[in-house]
Amino acid sequence: MTSNLRWDIAQVAQAAAGKWPVVIRQLTGIAASNLTGKYGPCPKCGGKDRWRTFADFEQTGGANCFLCGRMADGFALLQNLRNCSFPESLQLVAELLNIEPLTNDLTMSNQDPAKLIS
Ligand SMILES: [Zn+2]
Fold this sequence. Notes:
Blueprint: H1 9-16, H2 20-28, E1 40-42, E2 46-53, H3 57-60, E3 63-65, E4 69-71, H4 74-82, H5 86-96
Antiparallel strand pairs: 1-2, 2-3, 3-4
Helix pairs in contact: 2-4, 4-5
The protein binds zinc ion.
The site of zinc ion has 7 residues, from loops.
């Protein structure tokens, strides 16, 4: 599953903010009870009370597991639960949210769409 498609990280993160509970559940299949912000079993490594999503999970997608480590945002969480790379996690989220890939690497530098000519 290799792909040359690329997305703007900030754009994907912005689109996912506020939707992380839906995004994570769609892409990992974990239960809503894993996303309550209360301590519980880790969906990756089990246990009873080692996992907890951040208070701002809806905005950041981050969680912490005492064994797996801290997942600073939803991309890190996806990498952990799906054993994928960062670019793969970015692609998963972008495709779920129907975000268009960049047409080439040059567009990585966000051009200011200010109307300089009008
Ligand atoms: Zn864990």
